[in-house]
Every structure is written in structure tokens, then in C-alpha cells.
Amino acid sequence: MRLQELIPGLEIYSVPSGTKVFDWTVPDEWNITDAYIMDADGNKVVNFANNNLHVVGYSEPIDEILDRWELETFIHSLPAQPDAIPYITSYYRRRWGFCMTHNQRLALKDGLYRAVINSFLAPGHLDYADLLIPGESDQEVLLSTYICHPSLANDNLSGVVVTAALARWLQSLPRRRFSYRIVFIPETIGAIAYLAKHLDHMKEKTIAGYVVTCVGAGKRFNIISSRQGNTISDKFAALATYSTPYPVIKPHLYTERGSDERQYCWPGVDLPIASITLDKYGEYPQYHTSLDNLEFISQERLEASLELYKTCLQLIDFNRNFKCTTICEPFLTKHGVYPQTSPSSVPDELNVLAYCDGTNDVYDLMLKSGLRGEDTILTLNKLLEKGLIE
Ligand code: ZN
């Protein structure tokens, strides 16, 4: 609902529990109102009301008296990070459990405890939202992010925020060559359910796309390759990173994937979907713990990610093969694009023009001319304006 306020036209859809989606079934819906562990003196030593990571996701309802050692078997904590509550969920195996900091765990005394989880599992819905922002062409670029992680900022409120900002930016553009499909789904089952509904259309129309995740914290950008590894999405992600001031790790192979590119690239789906992250999921110590909070992410990082995605999408939207219109070098001075003084090296314009033979797209031109990111777009726009390429 908050996203609909930010993104006009965003629609919410529901898939009922029990719906078959390829090899999976949409599970029952989990609802929880309250959960705690109470000691013999009536103190709530762990309370869901303080942090919703305290209960293993999808926990069954319980109300039991246990001694400390029985209770221990239902507790998850991280000895190496004694102040972090781990994020643990168990969708398809019925169980219950509590998550707490290791320090909380060590503070438990011998004695009896009452463990209460007021939850219920019942047929409900898997909710997701999407929006198609139309362009001149009905070919589509996909931006997909996931909305299922509770109370975790980098993984993945950051992805939701950056995707929303990208949607607003795309909507504000005076023209778009491609159409843009914006998708907010629960990870894995949501992507599978979404593909079950849209597979034929997406296979026909999708030319590029990204899973937007973990874009609010970290020191370096990461690219997770599509399964094919050499799609437009892979190429322009790599080239767009040249214009960010942040260091970039060489692209991860598809075997290092972890989010919904798993579904989008699966054989038979075969969409050209990659991902750009800052510090990658699973590779920072705050990952899937309560330390992945609003203090961990920063506006500066969110903006850097937003800018990188914007550059990447601009390059994709602009991409085509160009052909120069003159035989031999054009007399640039006549066209008003040549520096008045004699340049010490070949000017950028001529380097770009030299490869405009109709076989090179923007990616090739960037690689061959040495120009990067927005500079390439500016140069090509200038040459287009002067009629020197078509
Ligand atoms: Zn995660």
C-alpha cells in the first residue's frame, strides 16, 4: 500500500494458498500476533513485540512449559555475533523456534519457562505487486525485487526502495524506448508464481533485466551474471560500473547466484536476468541478522546504487547499432564538433565514429573507443544531432 502511494499505477495481486505453480504449491499463509518466552518469575525474556526476528518464520502455534534444557533445542543464536538475532525461516517444514542474541541465551538460568507463539497457518494468499511502464516498444526490461524479509534493511528493504525510486524515475522520463516491468514479489515462491502467470509473455518480450537486492550497504559493487552470462543485462551492468566511484568486483558466475535470477534464468524460462548488488548477500557479517538494520544502510549507498542502475538502464534503452554517414573521416570543424586547436590524440568523436560501421552496438563502441557510461551516450547523441551517424 505504501508502494502504491509512491508509484502510481502499481497493482497488487493475490495468489491463493494451494495454487500449483510449476513444481511448487503456494503454501498456507502464516499469521502471528504475539510470541514470547516467560521465565518462572513472569518476566518475558524474549518478546516478539520487541523484534519480529525473535520467532522462526512460519513457526507453528505453541504454548508449552519447558525446562531450560528442553527450551535450548528450540533456540537459535549466533555465538560468533553475540549481539545479533539471526533471521531464520522454515516455510515447508512444520516446526517452531525462537531466535535471540547469544548474550540473551547465555543469560537464561536453569528453571522452567513458558514458550508461547500465537500464530496460525491457514489458507490465505501470496501477495505481489507489479506495474508495466509503457515505452515506444513493447519489448520489456524487468526490474524485480523481493518483499518477504521482515525487519532487514539491506536484504531487502534497500532493494524495494531503489526499485521504487527507479520506477518513479522511469515514469518521469519524457520518452522511453522500451517498456519497463516492475515487480515486487516474495522471493522464490513469488517469482515462481509470477512466472507461472506471465511466462509466455515474458519469454517473448523480455530483452534485459535485473534482480535488485542488497543495494544499501557495503564498499564494493558486485554483478551476479545471468545463466547465459553474455546477455545485454550482463554487458551493460559491467560497463555501467565504470562510471561509479565505488570499486567493482569482477562479475560473479551464475553458480554464485542467490536470489530470483535462480528462477528467471532457469532452463525453459531463460530470461536474460542479472543482478547488481553492493556487498553481496551472504558475504557481510550482518547478513540475515538483526544487525542488518537501518543503521547498517545509508542514503549515500542507496543513491550510488540508484545512479548505477539508472546509467545501466539508460545504456540499454539507448543501445542500437550505428553507422556513420560519411565516406572517410568527416570534416569535423565544418560540423562544429572538432576542437579548434590541434588535439594531441585522436578525439573521442573520431574514435567512436571509426567503429560506427553498422555492426557495433553501444556496448561494442564503448569497449572499442574507450569511452564510458554517459560519455558514450553524450557523444553518440552529438553525432546523431549533427547527422554524422544514423
Ligand atoms: Zn535474504
Q: Brief description of this entry?
A:
It is built from twelve helices and 15 strands. It has 390 residues and is an alpha/beta fold.
Contiguous uncertain segments of 5+ residues: none
- Beta strand count: 15
Strand order of the largest sheet: 1-10-12-11-13-15-14
Structural class by helix and strand composition: alpha/beta
Radius of gyration: 25 Å
User: What is the first-to-last residue Cα distance?
Assistant: 45 Å
SSE succession: HEEEEEEHEEHEEEHEHEEHHEHHHHH
Q: Largest sheet, if any?
A: 7 strands, mixed
Mean pLDDT over the full residue set: 94
Overall shape: elongated
Proportion of residues in extended strands: 15-25%
Enumerate how many helices there are, as a single number.
12
Helical content band? 25-40%
Bound molecules: zinc ion
Descriptive terms for the model:
390 residues, 12 helices, alpha/beta, seven-stranded mixed beta sheet, four-stranded antiparallel beta sheet, binds zinc ion
Q: In terms of topology, how is this protein built?
A:
Blueprint (H helix, E strand, L loop, with lengths): L1 H5 L4 E6 L3 E2 L2 E2 L3 E10 L5 E4 L14 E6 H5 L2 E2 L21 E2 L2 H5 L5 E11 L2 E9 L6 E7 L6 H20 L6 E7 L3 H17 E7 L9 E3 L7 H9 L20 H4 L8 E5 L21 H20 L13 H4 L12 H7 L7 H8 L3 H13 L5
Parallel strand pairs: 7-8, 11-12, 11-13, 13-15
Antiparallel strand pairs: 1-10, 2-3, 4-5, 4-9, 6-9, 10-12, 14-15
The site of zinc ion has 4 residues, from loops.
Description:
- There is one protein chain.
- With 390 residues, the chain is an alpha/beta fold.
- It is built from twelve helices and 15 strands.
- The chain has helices at 2-6, 68-72, 102-106, 153-172, 189-205, 232-240, 261-264, 299-318, 332-335, 348-354, 362-369, 373-385, and strands at residues 11-16, 20-21, 24-25, 29-38, 44-47, 62-67, 75-76, 98-99, 112-122, 125-133, 140-146, 179-185, 206-212, 222-224, 273-277.
- The chain has a seven-stranded mixed sheet, sandwiched between helices. Strands 5-4-9-6 form a four-stranded antiparallel sheet.
- The radius of gyration is 25 Å and the shape is elongated.
- The two termini are 45 Å apart.
- Zinc ion binds next to loops.
- Zinc ion binds at residues 149, 155, 281, 288.
